[in-house]
Amino acid sequence: MISRRALFGVGVGGLGLSACDRIAASPRLESIVGRGQGLTLHAQRLLLSAQPLAREFRAADISPVFKPNGSMRPDTDAYQALLADNFASWRLAVDGLVRAPTSFSLADLKALPARTQITRHDCVEGWSAIGGWTGVPLSVVLGRVGLMPEARFVVFHCADNLGRGPGGLYYESIDLFDAFHPQTILAYGMNGGALPVAHGAPLRLRVERQLGYKQAKYVMRLEVTDRLDGIGGGKGGFWEDRGYEWYAGI
Amino acid sequence: MTVLAASGSPAAPPPRISIYRHGLVVRLTHWINVLAISLLLMSGLNIFNAHPRLYWGAAGADFDPAWLEMKASGDRGLLRIGALSLDTTGVLGLSQASDGSWNQQGFPDAVTFPGHRDLATARRWHFFLAWVFVINGAIYYLSGLITGHLRRDIAPARRELAPGALWTSVVDHLKLRHPVGEAARRYNVLQKLAYLAVIVILLPLMVLTGLTMSPGVDAAVPWLVSLFGGRQSARAIHFITANLIVLFVIVHLVEVVLAGVWNEIRSMITGRYVVPAEKHR
């Protein structure tokens, strides 16, 4: 039961500037508030248990300019070298809890079954853009390498150093629920052409039904794992390590 | 009613009639709502500041035309709605932080939660409070249906909706004349309609438009976001509805002050309400 005093204390305090920040930074409140995330994840997983598709749009709905966000052009020497030869020497490594660790060239991926989808991209900031994506379903790639029984997550290691400095490489992760969704693809094409550098060339993740920061660009390596706490900052992604929720379906 | 004062002798003080006005569930859910909505609003403004532009339709970003935007232009803060541009320096578009520095952002730090740009924290609180708000609201609805509170106290009777009765209530409000005696035991018709609009339209609309900003919910319930005309329309309606709720709260607080601040607040805390006596003329 909330005491009347506590009720008014917080309510009135909420109007004061410093009080606001004190409330937001309180570790005890933070742990209570953080539980909302688990509730949201479980509620959405229940709603999505039949694995419905995200809405697909018509070509006429495609945004005239799809706003690129995050890294626009990775400036590492390694990426610049790959870009210089048009990704001919680029390879996607797939390893971790897989039966047959494999690396794929862009041509290898393009030879696999492809899926094209025109979907709405929702940035955590609030804006949306509609774009068409062509790529290989992640389920196909995972099927090729074979998962070990302990596999739970797929981690996407990227080429862009968004954090500028050690530990600043972008990465993301999803669990197998989303990894095997038909619209979860590794895209190498956008709006009928090749995937532009600003949008993650040569390969980016599309995990529809989640926000923009999950759509890792410049993907270099897939790591299949059973836990996220040993990777990067331990929270499952670049932005997750900086306070954002791992589950970005909301 | 006998008018004692007319005789010239001092009128005996009218008997103090006190009634039990608000049930426990109504009072409890009211104050939880005060807390939840305040922080939902303030964290919502922080989230809005991450992209202070609104669009109609499914999509919209920097390169698409926005019907509302807040921005800084040189040393001025601007609010633009359609073709109308307002100088809102110091409040919207450009405002001062607590340390005196100038920030180019939609709403000022003074009204956001947390009190500085922090999208991750604002989102975490917003979604947690949304759960609190929805569960609290469900308890209120359920209890209101079971106890008959919604039907008895909130839903206007047919005779109250007659044009004459409505007009009388409008005039009473304009003259700041508050019901006394028997009439003060019930909500007046405009009050009922205002509460009804908030309970049945604004608050549910807030939840539904909020839900459709979730790509997960949109995949699960695609018709809902279509009903609002697309995700960016839903975001715009979410914003407009929040403004209407703020408008309601302002009117609500003004009425509390006009009707007798202590009596009104006490009735929402202890349930006990002193019926204002009929005035002697």
Provide the gyration radius of chain A in Å.
Answer: 20 Å
Order of strands across the main sheet of chain B: 2-3-4-5
Ranges of chain A where pLDDT stays below 50 over 5 or more residues in a row are 1-15
Order of SSEs of chain B, N→C?
A: EHEEEEEEHHHHHHHE
The coarse overall form of chain A would be: globular
What oligomeric state do the depicted chains represent?
A: heterodimer
Helical stretch count of chain B?
Answer: 8
Distance between the termini of chain B: 11 Å
Provide an overview of this structure.
The complex is a heterodimer of chains A (250) and B (281). Chain A has 250 residues and is α+β, with helices and mostly antiparallel strands. Chain A has 7 helices and 10 strands. Chain A has helices at 4-13, 17-25, 27-47, 77-84, 106-111, 138-145, 176-179; strands at 91-96, 102-105, 115-122, 128-137, 153-158, 171-175, 184-190, 193-194, 204-207, 219-225. Chain A has a 5-stranded mixed beta sheet with strand order 2-1-10-5-6. In chain A, a hairpin with a 2-residue loop joins β7 (184-190) and β8 (193-194). Chain B is of the alpha+beta class and 281 residues long. Chain B has helices spanning 24-49, 119-147, 149-154, 163-174, 189-211, 215-220, 222-227, 231-269, and strands spanning 17-20, 53-54, 68-73, 76-81, 84-87, 95-96, 102-103, 272-275. Chain B has a 4-stranded antiparallel beta sheet. A two-stranded antiparallel sheet of chain B has the order 1-8. A two-stranded antiparallel ribbon of chain B has the order 6-7. In chain B, α1 packs antiparallel against α2 (119-147) and α5 crosses α8. Chain B starts with 16 loop residues before the first strand and ends in a 6-residue tail after the last strand. The model of chain B is unreliable at 1-8 (pLDDT under 50). At the A-B interface, α1, α2, α3 and β4 of A face α1, α2, α6 and α8 of B.
